[in-house]
Amino acid sequence: MALDGITVANLVYDLNSTLEGSRIQKITQPEADEILMTIHTRDGQRRLLMSASASLPLIYFTQTNKLSPMTAPNFCMLLRKHIGSGRIVRVWQPSLERIIHFEIEHYDEMGDLCRKDLILELMGKYSNLIFCNEDGMILDSIKHIGAQTSSVREVLPGREYFIPVTQEKLDPLTLDDQAFLETLFKKPMPLAKAIYNTCTGISPVIAEELCFRSSIDSSQSAREIPEPEQLHLLRNFKELMEDVKAGRFTPAIYYDEAGIPVEFASVELTMYRDYERRPFPSVSALLETYYAQRNEASRIRQKSADLRHIVSTLLERESRKLDLQMKQLSDTQKREKFRVYGELLHTYGYDVKPGETFVIVPNYYDENREIRIPLDPEKSASENARRYFEKYEKQKRTFEALSELTGETKACVDQLTSIQTFLEQAQTEADLTQIREELIASDYIKKHAAGGKKGPGGKKGASRPEKSAPYHYRTQDGYDIYVGKNNLQNDELTFRFANTSDWWFHAKKMPGSHVIVKRRDQEQLPDHIYELAASAAAYYSAGRDADKVEIDYVQRREVKKPNGAKPGFVVYYTNYSMIAKPDISQLTLI
Fold it and tell me: What's 522's DSSP letter?
């Protein structure tokens, strides 16, 4: 799923038709590599999100306003100073490059009319947002690229802006027939690869689509394609480019049978005719639908990196400690044997002769079967007996201490494992904040290390995220299902929110969310509600990627929390079980 040159052309077409002549009203920088503009257009106020994220560069119109730092970063302040109330003259794309230029008109301090160029480069890890004057001189960029980082091009204030030519690719919008045939069909590589290596802005998906439309095997060498098939491919290629030039775009996402997006494109992908095609009114709506969740997930994963590292380190340490304690505990299993040795030596010690290394005596603890007792030849029978009693007492004390310690360490391992699972499933900053609170409350991290009073991210001026709440789903027949996002919410849901007659679900013997199904009055739940709740419990557990997960379920009154237990830990002594597939597709999020 690539943001290729054709998708960018679709974006430019939509942006130009919407923004031409519009005025910028507000500029914010919610993330280090992201700009959000509020623009007054002919059709009302619109928000335009531009991200130069290395992992997920994108641009689209959005309805959502994002929280920003109290103090704006320098790049944002510079944009506000120059184009804070500027008018967008036009939006354009050089060739079919993954680059979008915003020509913006504004008045300078002297009242003279000036033009600036805001350039968004959507090039994966090389993505950037660059601000230039009308002469092409870089005023600033959201990412500074020095000579030590790139030998091809410096992106620094005072440098001249240019597009680096790193590959000898042809412009597909101006390419003539002869050049296309001579360049493409001389390459000793699979045809699809030859297409996207020859032309700028053509992604592997579009290259495969062109081969499919031309009924040519995309894996066949470009050199071996017969002339009639070459001409057929050329004709399909020209038709596609004519659609791009004329702005005839049909943005859509293609979904497989499981409802998972397989691909998106701004032109029809006939090779996916067996998949569900979901069209969108604009490519911006398509990208917001597809990328908004991916972008948020990517951001949250970056922001949770420190917590994930802390939890992973702690879990590794506690697991090693538990392994060592269990090994030591297993060594104490010999303690009863030492007690028996001592008592038998007290009983039959008179038969032991000086200097003997062992003695064989009847074991009245085991039907008088004979037992061989090793001896220290330099000690008497009573001294050997005392030595065995001392070993017994020592191992008994060790066993009692380790039994308590291993229980505590096992509880820590279980808690950290569950926190690790919830971190992987966290979707908002509020989710991370509550997980961080649990780590602080459990003394895994110190408060100041988690951000203190400076805000959730530890930065002064960072806005506080809203309080995290459990997921609230509703079935088609109106039953309410609640899912905890972390251990603190699990406790809240189970012991404060749920009634004793509500039904409680949890994945068996693995970390996961507590799932509560609210009963209506005294009526019994329909069978399919049990199945939906079990599927939700499987989905929000460590077994999310498994085909099937065993789920325990019971009425809430049967669930107990032991005194001093870790957050989220409960016990129950009677329950039902079922096998469920991790799935929430039939539930509606409220």
Answer: T
